[in-house]
Amino acid sequence: MGDQDPELQAIRAARMAQLQKQGASSGGASSEQDGEKQEQQDQMKRDLLATVLDPGARERLSRIALVNPGLSSQMEGILVRMAQTGQLRQRVTEEQLIGLLEQASEAQGKSSAKKGISFQRRKVADDDDDFDL
User: N or C: which end of the chain has fewer CB within 10 A?
Assistant: First the structure.
């Protein structure tokens, strides 16, 4: 990666922030314009992720999107925020993406209650007379 890549990322992040501000300021815009702005933001997000992720990480994230779209969009949001704030110095590898996924699952596991099946058995007095014939 050359010297232009961090500059390009900064330009894209600034443009994405500008689009988000424009979307927030125009509350009375028509749905067609909103759809167009949303499409532009999605395209900017895809472009930013393409520059931030290496091919292996991009492939893994796309496979995650097939199985769990919510987790994929959460990770995309995290990666976009990290790129905009300058926390990413180089492209994210597949191993680094796996580490981020593990951190997210640990944080989610701590915040939510333990999921599982709990059995509540009825406490009934044992009556042996039922079986006397």
Answer: C
For residue 123 the two structure tokens come to 């406490």
Count how many domains the chain has.
Answer: 1
Q: Between the CA of residue 21 and those of 85, 87, 125, what are the distances in Å?
A: 17, 22, 67
The yes-or-no verdict on residue 55 having pLDDT over 80 is yes
Q: What is the CATH number of the domain that holds 15?
A: 1.10.8.140
Could you report the per-residue pLDDT of 66-114, keeping only the tens digit for each? Answer: 999 988 999 999 999 998 898 888 999 999 999 999 998 888 777 665 6
Q: Is residue 28 part of a domain?
A: no
| Cβ–Cβ under 8 Å, residues 24 and 62 | no
With a CB cutoff of 8 Å and minimum separation 6, the contacts of 65 are 72, 73
Rounded to a whole number of angstroms, the CA Rg of the chain reads 24
- Is the residue at 31 inside a domain? no
